[in-house]
Amino acid sequence: MNTMSTSFSISTYLREHIRTVPDWPAPGVQFRDITPLLQDPEVFRTLIKAFVDRYQSPERRPDVVAGLDARGFIIGAVVAYELKVGFVPVRKKGKLPFTTVQETYELEYGSATVELHTDAVKPGDRVLLIDDLIATGGTMMAGKRLLEKLGATVLEGAAIVDLPELGGSQRLKESGLALHTLVDFEGH
Asked: Record's InterPro entries (predicted)?
């Protein structure tokens, strides 16, 4: 595996493996596709190692990792496995079979609802909330609220990609959520 010595070089390395798809899902949108990061085993290992290295330290170490539907499941589950902690999915409405709590949030064109099992975390649990990308911040904010409803503390929100021009990372930081992202893309 190619070992990176600085976060800047990791960011550059990962950026080279993110595909930009123009005009998807709508004209003018530059979609940042992370699937090439997952397809290449060396790149995928570098990606996971970047998160694991950050969250191994005692002050940042979570009791559980929560992944946001759906790409946050991929990254979050592997990070949880490597950290030897549990993983909980924050799902889109109607996907979880047990008793849930819900949080609705606004999208660019409407709203969406995410759910979490009521026994997914315990009061006082330290949680790392993870997703693939931060755009408007709505999904991550909803996930944070769900975890807090159950008494957990969200240590940090983490994502591979930040799209700062869409304002999500700023809104999340203003809400008090610490954020860690590996690659920033200006423009959307």
From this structure: Ade_phspho_trans, PRTase-like, PRTase_dom, UPRTase/APRTase
- Beta-carbon count within 10 A of 37 CB: 26
The catalytically annotated residue of 42, 106, 108, 174 is: 108
Query: Nearest Cα to 115, choosing from 87, 91, 137, 89?
Result: 91
- 117-143 pLDDT, tens digit per residue, is 999 999 999 999 999 999 999 999 999
In 29-148, the DSSP E strands lie at: 30-33, 64-68, 86-92, 100-107, 110-117, 126-134
Q: How confident is the model at residue 2 (pLDDT cuts 50, 70, 90)?
A: very low
Set 32, 71, 91, 145: catalytic member:
71
Which class would CATH give 7-184?
A: alpha beta
Name the pairing type of β-strands 110-117 and 100-107: antiparallel
6 Cβ contact list (under 8 Å, min separation 6): none
Domain limits of the chain?
Answer: 7-184
Single-letter code of the amino acid located at 135: A
d(CA 81, CA 83): 5
Distance CA 78, CA 116 (A): 19
The set of long-range contacts for 39-44, using a CB threshold of 8 Å and a minimum separation of 24, is: 42/1, 42/2, 43/13, 43/14, 43/17
Average pLDDT, the chain: 93
Is the confidence at residue 146, as pLDDT, over 60? Answer: yes
The number of beta carbons lying within 10 Å of the beta carbon of residue 181 is 19
**71 assigned to active site:** yes
